[in-house]
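Notes from the 1:1 (GR / supervisor)

We went over the backlog. Supervisor wanted to see one worked example end to end before approving the batch request, so GR pasted a single chain during the call. The sequence is below; no edits were made to it. Supervisor asked that the structure be written out right there so they could see what the output format looks like.
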Amino acid sequence: MVPLRGLYPDYRPVGGPAYYRGPEIGGLLLRALGEAGLDPDALDIDDLASLDEFHAVGRAATVALADLAGVTAGERVLDIGAGIGGPARFLAARRGAQVTALDATARFCRAAELLTRGAGLGDRVTIVCGDALALPFADGAFDVAWSQAVSQNIAQKDRFIAEAARVVRPGGRVALFEVVSGPGGPLELPVPWADHRSQSFLSTAEELRELLEVQPLEILVWNEGPAALETIAAAAHSLKSRPSAPRLGLDLLMPDFKARMAGLARNVAEQRIALVQTVARRCF
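Structure output shown during the call:
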């Protein structure tokens, strides 16, 4: 097997981050892994949790959604908008699922391949660079269609939900953990997904539910606001108290990380945004 370092010519043991200057982040990740004392060819997904759970509330939100959706060993899961693949690797490593991780951002897909291979999960996680609005999969190809914190980036949410429903077999599930607009007023910026209002496409919780209900889907779980946070808090309590490796966090990948996370916290506190968990079963 070719060592991962050999696949990324921008890798250097020292030097400044390349993410801000170009599309590739492989070298940046390899440098950060080295500084954290980790072997990029022998990674543990728990060491990566604070870095690669690229969505609100981190690993606990993934665990909570996996529990609600009842993801079990051997199931075929499509992670739509998978980012750099953290939830996909969790579902494969901890739940035994066979996961396809799809994202539209090529550099995220390449980073996902790097980390997936380094974690020894290349036989259980397949990375696909593709469009959430035109999924390159046959009808009914998966047991579960999964997405976390993606819909706020998508204007055509009807197509997003329709495609997720299409690729799930009858009796399969669509599982979503999404950010929606709240009653507290317009979104304050910046936030992790947007610098300008033109980049944010929040729906209300009611609009999201209606989009699910017009599909051949039966809603099994609907947790909104405090109810969603309660399930996540319970999942967090169940996790082993093992910290992620030092120097590995979303600040590596997210410009102006502190300002964006402060904006996110402010919007939640002022009820300008809320969180929704939902699981819906395909009827036919």
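Supervisor's comment: Residues 20 and 193 are 16 Å apart (CA to CA).
Batch request approved.
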